[in-house]
## 1
Amino acid sequence: MDGECVSLPARLQRHETARTAELRESIALMLSLRDAEDPPAPDVPGAFRGTEASGAQEDKENGATTAVSAPLHQRKLPRWMTADGEGAGEESNTSALPYYVHAGPVHYITDVDVANDWVRRIRAHIGTTLMGFDMEWRVVFRKGAEPRKTALIQIAVRLLADEDLVINHLKSLSN
Amino acid sequence: MSVFLFQISAMVEFPEQLKQLLEDPVFVKLGVNIVGDMRRLENDYNVEMRGFKELQMPRTGERKMSLQALTQK
């Protein structure tokens, strides 16, 4: 590799791998929760507070009891956010076309030094000067509240290594 | 394609290299409503993003295209 390339210390690389695995796990968790039913809204105040409330629930009609033990953080995503959702793309004329499925690596970076190292690497190994860009921040729903600072910056780049992947893939197809 | 997620909120400061990359007009940043993001970055972290292209199609009378719709091939 050329002198421009900054290789990450092994310790940081391990950290990155662990982080990426963590991210993958949380995505898998999110997908598994996607199909789970939302617990019905409790009609008894305090029904979600703990075990003492579940006793009261059992005296009520059947059906409401099972939902009480369901985790509260369960999250149901809108159908359009899922690749196989029925409503996917219904607002555009491209609904019959397949989604872009990202098969490459995802690097989740929470450390300044790791971030700086990665950007140097991106500069040294970028295959094109184009990059996809997006960012996220926490929304505050209080009226007149100061919006939160940008929390996450997302960049999608085609690195030379990614092109190697594509070339190898094409080679394997032509064989 | 490689994807990088920079969790700025977990960092002690905005990464200088990332700031330089975003401010470098040679590297073109593509995004939906990217001008909004540019203003926000300047306001939050004093990052003056240069070299960007808007992905949203300015078609009047039609509903704005979401990033979700644009990522369909």
Note: The interface with chain A takes residues 1-13, 15-18, 20-21, 26-32, 34, 37, 40-41, 44-45, 52, 63, 65-69, 71-73 of chain B (CB under 8 Å).
## 2
Amino acid sequence: MSGILSLIWLLPAAGGVLCALLPRRLTRVAAILVAAGELVLTLIVAYSFDSSHHGYQFVEQATWVPQFNVGYHLGVDGLSVWLLVLNALIALVAVLATPARTARLSSFLGLMLLMEAGMAGVFEALDLVLFYVFWEGMLIPAYFLLWLWGEGDRPWYAALKFVLYTLAGSLLMLVGVIGEYAFSGAHTFDIATLAAHQPSPAIQFGLFFLFAIAFVVKVPVFPFHSWLPDAYLAAPTPFLLMFAGVMGKTGAYAMLRILLPLNPQPEGWWNWNAVLPVLAVLGIIWGALLALAQRDIKAVVAYSSISHMGFIVLGIFAFNAQGQQGAVLQMLNHGIIIPALFLLVAGIQARTGTRDREVLSDLAPRMPVMAGVFLIVTMAALGLPGLNSFVGEFMTLLGAWQFSPWLAVAGAIGLVLAPVYMLRLFQGLMYSRTQPAHAPEPVTKRTDIARGELALLAPLVALMFLLGLYPYLITQFLPALGQGMQVLGSRWS
Amino acid sequence: MTGQLAAILILVLPALGGIFLGGFNWRGPRLLTQLIGPGVVWLAFLVVLWLFFSGTTGDYTYWTWIRSGGFSVPFNLHVDHLSVFMCLVITGVGGLIVTYAVGYMDHETDGSYARFFCYMDVFVLSMLLLVLAGNVVFLIMGWAGVGLSSYLLIGFYYWRRTAVVAARKAFVMNVIGDVGMILAGFVLFVTYHQITYSGLFGALGKSDSWQLELAGFLLLVGGIAKSAQLPLHTWLPDAMEGPTPVSALIHAATMVTAGVYLVARFSPLYNVATGAHASVAIVGAVSALFAATVALVQTDIKRVLAYSTMSQIGYMFLAVGVGAYSAGMFHLLSHAFFKALLFMAAGNVIHALADEQDMRRYGGLWKDMRTTSITFLVGSLSLAGIIPFVGFFSKESVLGEAFSSGTALGYSVWAIGFVTAVLTAFYTGRMWWFAFVRPAAPYRPAEHPHEAAPVMLVPVAILAVLATFGGALQTSALGGWHLVSDFLKPVVGEAATQTSALELAVTTLTLLLAIAAFLLARQFWLTGAWSAEGWRRRLPAVTALLEHKYYFDEIYDAVFVRGMDTAAHDSERFLEAPLIDGAVRGVGSAAESSASGLSMTQSGLLRSYLLVFLGGAVVAAALVLYTYSRLVG
């Protein structure tokens, strides 16, 4: 099965170019076929993945720029295999959720598939230069999608902010990539080799900073999150599913794949490994607090996302199996829950014409099925034990507790705030704000969720239950790690 | 049938019921709902009966939930006498209440009807998971599942704003408890590297440590929140917004007693962690007294019952807190009988009086609703602790065990429990004489209230029989049988049951004072020989304090609810917008003004940024490489 990893990024890349060239009436079918094919490919990889095998699997290696030892090196391990599947799943949902009346549909779908290809490449690349190329390859379509199809009165502003932030991060990362080559003494960009040749802690301190800026902006980690509310509010829904559901995870993934193995001891004036978890906890509380203050329901979900991503970073910097496996679970969980929430928000906006919490109320009698699905997703999002998000939050906090109990206790404040903002959102939207003496007459005119929307949400909801009751499905793959990966249970078990 | 199959079947049955009722999108035919809703609970009851009579116990593992490093959690069910005891209460009393609801919810539309029974089945499922779970993680899942069903059922009448707000309040306060449980799980796992009960209790050892105390306190936080003990109790009175069968099942008979089960389940821990154990007793005693005083002045019949529930659970906490686990569990059983009975009898009245819950608009019920009144009287006498009803025996075994424990703690909590017992008899008497016996209030909503339908009367009557004769299970307060203690002995160990003469004397005194208080209430509320108004005028500060329930709601609202809102909005206004976002905007607008100086169009702006930054990246890369080659070369 060699070559399947190349196929996984080439298929959507080529499909994207093809879609952009196809006429409007064919492009949607083509995009759906490409996205479905991609999902099948990633599932084949996950199915044939050998969880007892240590080291990268399905490896492809070739020389690319011999002068600088740049290699074309792809591979997956337990960390990346499910993220590839998530990427393909959410991309398929996003393509299906794209309305046929979208302006410049061919270019839109083309860019979406290119973004999918970029993210697939990020999850597969084992060479820093290749990783950087894929990283930019996912960002550039995202800029254009946000800029040209953005909603609201000034999408260019949101796009600009996103560009400013992420390009600053990319620039520093590029310097970091070159720095790794120079200072590790290995004269290679191969991630596994670099992990075996670590520079001195002082150098690591600097390199860590260069990489971390790029990754914390992408996640985002407090206080580098201010691009996120603007970008999420402006983003068109299909793009937002991939943007919020998958792209944020590339930052967290890169922390596990690159940041920690290459710079495990970033100690100079201070130790970065002690700074990041504090920022993560601040983000958990900050996102939750600001979610309480929002009127726009999309903004509530956007800020809740900042809070949830904080758990992921907290787990990563707990440096133990529970925390980091929990972080990986939480990446997948959040990647399932946030697209579902944004689909529901879009459905409500489409039916009522507004996203203002002060205006919306009493929707449940008019859209009972929507209310039911919204309730399940709300419960998953606020971390109800039994549904998927609980597993990730529990594991990351358990990891953090072993690292520093106070951080875990502070993070647990996020668990208390989550039901406050999520239930206030849900109840405010769905229920009445008056106090009539008798039950109102049943509503005859319903504007409930359409079958198509339900079909998009159904797999996501099913996964919320499955991963809540059987998370071992995912975590049994996690100890099967690539060379040089020292965390996630192999060294720390 | 094997134990492995039976244990999972107990969970699968209500789960199937819930899925079936919910899966039809609330559109299943009514008859089917009536059959399936209570039917699955009764089927589960049969399976529990099989477990009970076959004496099956064991620890059954079904699948690996997670394994991560040394942290391995199976999905396992723990069937022992304690969990079977709880399952009997949940499915037995639960079955009666869900059957009762077939009649009580009759006014609802088909959709609401199915929704109600779906939620009830989900509740039964979660509660059974709570008691059957064999490890801390699945305990937390059941714990949160009952919180979810409680939320759904309190907010069942979602068109009422008060119900919606009460539901959210209950959910959030219970999440505080959940977090306590989660942190307790962390402490236990990190200290003992065990998460299943069997592993954990084997590893605990016999010497106290700060980890054990901490775990005990954190578990207690969960127990307090779920069982509405001080200071996390304010959600329970508001939870009376839910339909009355919900109050009977969830907020009286089963869910709110989960905290008592928790302490009994973790008895190996609490037996060692003496500080945490003592605090269980203290919290229980103080809550019992607190709630009884508030119940003295409430006018809403369901709120009186709610505070009385809090008070009675206080007794159970008191019992398990002094190590009298089986006395606490017996009071749990007894309370499930008589409090479910009281709620359902009150439900009959509420049903007949057009949903009126204010006792000031009641009266004349002894004449118009004789059967219901008799059952309510049985419940009242049981609650007041009057012989020979079940409440007498269970309350006396609680107080007797506390008294005869011989410690300072035992005597103090006994004294509080003793005062509470008298107060209980008084406020129960007030309910009885004022709401039932007094002549009909002139503005009573229904002139000729109708007695309830048989489907509602029969479960109430069965509970009345149980509340009358249930005491025979354990008459150790007077010396005699102790079937409950014997049954639970393998799990919680043997409590001292030697009844002394002094204890008997104290028991008699309590009984006599309770009877006196019950009759005294008649003088206040029926004959008017003494005036309650007079006391009200003489002690305005005390009356105000009690009527405002010690101002807990007001304080929480001012500090937490409004405090959090202010914090949220101020964070946005003074930190997020000007500082965190402002810093970026500052850079952006500086760049923008320079760009407009170069007369670039708006759409060109983005492209120019891209060029500037990519160019910058290339230049920086070249620079670093150049420097590097100079250094090396």
Note: Residues 195 and 262 of chain A are 5 Å apart (CA to CA).
## 3
Amino acid sequence: MNTINFDLSPAWISIKVTLTATTIIFFIGLATAWRMTNYKGKWKGLIDGILTLPLVLPPTVAGFAILLLIGKNGPIGNFLEIFGVNIIFSWYAAVIAAIVVAFPLMYKTSMGAFEQIDSNILSAARTLGASEWKVFWRVAVPVAWPGIAAATALTFARCLGEFGATLMVAGSIPGKTETIPIAIYFATQGGEMQVALIWVLIIFAISLTVIVFMNYWNSYKTKQRFGAGE
Amino acid sequence: MEFYVDIQKKFQGFKLDVQLKSQYDIIGILGASGSGKSMLLRCISGLVKPDKGKIIINGKTFFDSDKKINLSMRDRKVGFLFQNYALFPNMTIEENIAFGLDKLPKQDRKHKVAGLLEKYHLENIEKRFPAQISGGQQQRVALARAVAYEPDILLLDEPFSALDVHLRNHMMREMSESLKEFQGMTLFVTHNREEAYRLCDHIAVFNAGKVEVFGEKNELFQRPASLETAKITGCKNIAKAIRLTENTIDVPSWGIQIKTSMKIKHENGYVGIRANHLKIVADDTKENCYKAFIADESDGPFRISLYLKIGSKPEKLDDFHIQCEMSKEQRETIKNRTETLYLYMNPEHVFFCL
């Protein structure tokens, strides 16, 4: 039996990228979803379409768009170059790719949860003198929590599995930008089936753990609120 | 206390056009569903912005389209009791009541919440969540939460409609007590005339987005001034009528003339008499007595309604003029369903409206 040369760095890179991206998406996604829930203007359909677009486009299209923006000749890339910063092919680029691709999941799912809230509850909070900030954090988010938790779990899983856009903007530099999905791809290409299999099992375990944990935690919360009584 | 509302609001083929001025503590708003009474509450609370007009409560201008004033919901100090109570499902009873008290120091807030829990009989359930308590308790929590904020005006939107009948009576008595203690104005919206009568001394009748009448409740129920008021206050016998003299009217569709104790001023209008004010008597020697025959009857748990045709025998079940309500004992004095009855309309109870 031949020993396999196994490098764990893709795991750390994946976790770092996924947690950072999920945290950022959580706040931006919730804020956007809440604003869009309350926005009743005529542009709603268009704005919603643009925000949801990355969900239906191939990740390579998202990757291409990001390259245009933050690449050496892109507007943002140009600007950052003044300070000597280059994002392309760094783990930040992987974070940006994950954010762009997974954002619509957070936005769409939590907006669905916000729209389910009985509007009387929000009105009651406002008549009791609550600021919009308080209405959001003390009422809207906790009431919509099961939906928001599901959205977060989906976002996490999507970030962890991101491949196409990441490969285009962050490349596959071992120990720097090589995430688990990319490691699986190159291991398979190079014929190292055992290495690929180990990574497949690891990603399987992480995804399942997160989703199962979310489910149990949610049902615990729900039981606390609605259990007993009746 | 002063209540002044003069607003207009158009929406989806419906127009709300309300002028209402009052100095009373409790005002009842009685109207069928879709008459715009809930929309009025929404305008007062700031949920909906009227197109035009003024809302002034206790000297505080909530809305004035001329002066471009439109206070936000949180600046109006309005206590809104929603039909479904709208309690925060993620907070305990205690936290629900304390929600509007952020500005108080912690000690005062605790003290106040404890006092309200006691007053509204919620002491042993303060750590529970809204989904774990009964409908009556939920209503008390909602009221305690609204009152805790010390609003200038309390808006009650059909507060009893989500409750069982037996609980409803009990909660109505409790509510009546609470409202007497409340140091502000109350607007009570309902489609149920009994609730309105029991809780309020002054009632505004709503019809098609307008205030039809506003007045003292007994006046309103005994002498409704309009056809819609007569209907909404539950009068079952209404027919077109023509003035003959100052105290007599002709009712062509019933084929009779009726004496009234109220003075008739207009040529054309409607006559009304409530089903429970009609009496079955022995003969028609007195005035306002008419021959009548039973067309149909419906059996309630305690009272019976007879559907009567005046003057001649009915041909089918729905061939009747008038509905008369009586106790089961009274019904038993009529032996034969086909016999001739004598119906008496007390002139005191007959009203004429426009």
Note: Chain B has a mean pLDDT of 90.
## 4
Amino acid sequence: MTATPVTTSTERAAPRSVPLFPVIVELVQRNMLAITRVPAAVGPILVMPIFFMIAFAGSYSAITAIPGFPTDNIYNWFVPYACIQGAAFGGIGIGFGTARDLENGFYDRLLLAPAGRRALVLGPLGTSLVRSTFPLVTVLPLGIVLGADWPGFTGLAMLILTGGIFACCTGLWALGVVYRLRNQRSLGLVQVGIFATLFLSIGQVPLAVMEGWLHGAARFNPTTNLLRMARQGFLDDGVTWTLTWPGLVASAAMLAGLGLFALTGLRRLDD
Amino acid sequence: MTVGIEPHRTASADLHPVRHLDAFVVMARRSVIGFFRQPASWIFGAAFPLLIAAVSASAFARATSLQDFPDSRSFLQFLLAGTILQGTLFGSINASTDLALDIENGFMDRLLASPVSRVSILVSRLAGAATYGAGVTLFYVVVFRLFGAPVEGGIPGIVVMVVLAMVMAIGVGGYGAAVGLRTGSAEAVGNSFPLLFILLFISSAFFPVELMSGAYRRVAELNPITYVIDACRHQVLEGFSLGEAVVGLLVAVAFAASTIAFALLQLRRKLADVS
């Protein structure tokens, strides 16, 4: 009778005795090591954003002539979008890693470890933050070589900030799905969700150019505000508080909602 | 070990032509039934292009007013040809995954040991892809028509598009089969999909080549998929044109013949490795 309460109290007490930060750092290091051991996994993060930037800018170069388009340089529009897309791949990547750990049983060991449950979420998020910088060092220089304008240090900071936030959002979404479905096949659903979010936003064209149902969907999609925040350094008006605060509010809402989704999913693993 | 190949050739040559046809029909039917028995593998491939079309039609609706944009009722009507090719590519890769599964589970070895020509074994396996190409074309034509984007070429134009989609499906299936035969892995076939996606993107599928610029435009103009899409698009936007249909068909047939030849080459290599 007494056995169960004693075990529970021990488990609850354990997280207090193990500092959170070192565990998070260890998990980040482990995940980064996994990337170097599976170079094929880095390909999508580096290559796909470059491809999307070139493909979108090449295919749709004429759309800057549409009245209401905020720039006459197509690279200024698609370079930040490609960086954010690349950051999203970082989030998907931690979903794959976690699903693999769940399938091969390694995650059970992590659950048994005397560390706080929050570390199991914050560790992968730290990894996705690091990975969100990968496309910045490939897409941005190439984009500038191809014709994009230098966004300035404030504009660059906005792009880095938004990339990190979006990587965390996609990471939390991926973890929430993977914790519930517990296999790598579930990553298909994760990808569909992320692509749908990006498609139904101002990823391709601004609200002023959209028509029909997409205009309504993009207007209420929080990703729209994130993309506005990311792009502002590349557009004529530069970085302004008017475009920054809606992005920060949308970020807070997305992180809170998706964080809850991931944590409740993690709790289900204990059931 | 070469014994396994030589008797096959003799037996295959002795087989009456009608029996060849019978064997082809039976294997093609197996391919079609097998393909449609797994809706999970193709429903997403059929639905995803519709989602892209719906988004693009709203996002780029005003692009139709750009100078040099082809005359069309709407951007949705412009997109029909590209959507058909996109759906065909997505489904065909799944069909060739089945061939790789045949290799993985050993069924391919039984077929190769049977007195059936190797071309029949390969092409019949792509019948599922071809049927899917025809089906998805008709499906998209109906859906687009419901949303106000008809095919101006009428029934003859639709027939042209169905034929082009079927040939392209066989071509893409041939490419997937080559990858499958080379690697023997269904996963590798699936992973080869991005290459097709790139080929599709750098074409006239999503935007007119006339409005592209620089090196990207030149690559798009040389891309064989552009010729097939333009042939389809002519039937949609301007009406039936036999000349455009023939150009598109010639390119599609050349594409399919080259990928099937490549797949047969991989099959020969596979047999040589075994022997």
Note: The radius of gyration of chain A is 20 Å.
